[in-house]
Amino acid sequence: MGALDRIRRRLAGARPPARTAPAPAPPPATPAEEARLWGVLREDPNDVQSFHALADVVRRRAEEGHRGGDPRRAADDAVWALAEELAHSGRAWYPLIELGRLSLHDDREQALKRLATAADRDPAGTALATAVRMLREEGRPADAVGLGVGHWRPREHEVEVGRQLVLAALESGRPSDARRTLDSLASNPDTAKVAAARTELQPLIDQAERSRSTGPPSGQIPVVDVRERSRFRNR
User: Fold this and answer.
1) Chain-wide mean pLDDT for the chain?
2) Nearest 5°: phi and psi at 231?
3) Where are the alpha helices (DSSP H) in 87-186?
4) What is the dihedral of CA 168, 170, 175, 176, to 10 degrees?
5) Which of 30, 117, 133, 156 is the most exposed place for a label (fewest CB within 10 A)?
6) pLDDT over 70 (residue 18)
7) What is d(CA 220, CA 186) in angstroms, rounded to the nearest whole number?
8) Spatial distance between the Cα atoms of 110 and 59, rounded to a whole number of angstroms
């Protein structure tokens, strides 16, 4: 078993996940439920659960009402309109992350600007951690590291930001950056979470450094894939 497989198994567990039948589609939201979701999001545009519930409503409506062309694109456009409307609030950071996700593969520069704005709107760091994870799940770990370089404040942001940045550095084939990030995380006052993160991440960094020192047969820099199961919806 190679280093990559061992790292994946360590994160995912030794046993493969059991196969389960797909969940049945939820019943269509009533007008009252849709109005309630709008009310919740106007009060708190960063309510992730309510955002996705309302996104499901507008996505399903767009797909059902679409005639010709690509129904998935029509659904994405409907979610875009939802996120764009909510993003007008100066408190909104999650809608900007969704806009970044939807535009990442067509307009990378604008997507990263949206993610940077989201990070600036949230002093706790939840937006930055979410943005970094989204970039990792979209296969852009180098962009995730770049976003963190300009916005991460180890002493002030939640520990999850540093954790996500360590994983992004590992996926980018940069174990030395991952180690420096983990060392910087020690300045965070939440010592319990820092210790838990170190327990999880230190072995992954050690393994990546050993793999890099020996070098793969192809001569390429080893890249570690430690992505977690995405919370973001497929486009």
Assistant:
1) 85
2) -90, -10
3) 94-103, 108-120, 126-137, 141-151, 159-171, 175-185
4) 0
5) 30
6) no
7) 31
8) 23
Asked whether 50 and 33 are in contact (CB, 8 A), the reply is no
Cα–Cα dist 78/59, whole Å: 6
| Measured torsion, CA atoms of residues 199, 205, 206, 208, in degrees rounded to the nearest 10 | 150
- Cα separation of 32 and 45, whole Å? 19
- Report the length, in residues, of the chain: 235
Instruction: Report the SS3 class of residue 223.
Output: coil
Residue pair 197/168 in contact by the 8 Å Cβ criterion: no
Asked if 162 and 145 count as a contact pair (C-beta separation under 8 A), the reply is no
Query: In sequence order, which residues have a C-beta less than 8 Å from that of residue 171 and are 6 or more positions away?
Result: 136, 141, 223, 224, 225, 226, 227
What is the rounded average pLDDT of the residues 97-112?
96
pLDDT (tens digit per residue) in 156-183: 999 999 999 999 999 999 999 999 999 9
Residue 224 CA, distance from chain mean position: 17
The neighbour count for residue 27, using CB atoms within 10 Å, is 7
Task: Say what the pTM is.
Answer: 0.79
